[in-house]
Amino acid sequence: MRAVGVRGGAWLGGVNAWGDVFVDGQERLRWFVAADDRWYRPSRETTVRQREISGVPVVETRIKVPGGDAVQRVYGVADLGGAIVVEIYNDSTLPFAVAFDRGDIATMREPSPTGVQGIDLPAGSVVFPVGHHATMRAAILIGDREQKISAQQLESLPSFEQVERGWLAALHVAS
Question: Measuring CA to CA, which residue among 85, 84, 59 is closest to residue 142?
């Protein structure tokens, strides 16, 4: 499991080999991709690749889908009392949908009204369309889990590139 979090944080996030997100050792979020040909369950796919971007706690998980990759990036931020941000980027030439196995997460838009179809997921799962070369962002709030945040607040959270630069700057100062 790869760690994600913030410096000095009282919580620890993690990402397992296929992109499931954990907070303080408890599984909190799984993701699935509906591509042009079928549903992709990362835990069952042979094309899953994972890395820490620049060796810092920003974890990227990729799954091969028709026309390219479905890319998940997970990282921690201190904003909003602490949050784990989950970005899904469509690095393919075709649109796809991403499903999360729980709906009590902050998201940048409302889920599809048709719900999750064609795959067996727990009640409360949500699905979002992701156009080609577009990004879908969600967050797991750590502090006040009942707090509701707006799409604008979610969009204002640091990007994975900003978090990566912050960690690299902190490491440079420490060396």
Answer: 84
For residue range 143-153, what is the model confidence (pLDDT) as tens digits? Answer: 766 778 888 99
Q: Please give the tally of structural domains in the chain.
A: 1
DSSP code of 36? S
Of 98, 92, 105, 144, nearest to 121 by C-alpha is 98
Give the three-class secondary structure for 128.
strand
Q: How far is CA 121 from CA 22, 39, 129, in A?
A: 18, 11, 17
CA–CA distance, 21 with 85 (Å, rounded to integer): 10
Q: What angle do CA 135, 23, 84 make, to 5 degrees?
A: 30
- The whole domain housing 12 covers 2-174
